[in-house]
Amino acid sequence: MPETVHLQDVVAGCRLMQRDSQKMLYQYFYGYAMNICMRYSGVQDDAVEMINDGFLKIFRQLDTFSPRQADYEWSLKSWMKSIFVHTAID
Length: 90
Fold this sequence. Notes:
Elements: H1 7-15, H2 19-41, H3 44-61, H4 72-89
């Protein structure tokens, strides 16, 4: 993510369904999501499908996210991880 862009601003843009913000969030956390989904799948094509399904859920449920820790990114990653894990299990 560019240094001039803050994660909170990207999340706010995603809440407004702005495509550029969604693309930035997707690209920024893609590797993180891939690591999680590969643990459950082992097949890259299946993991990519889980990632895409997970991000759809994230974009739809982003209004329910509220940071619980002082570190915003860590809090967001924890919330996203639970969505990816549940998506992989489903």
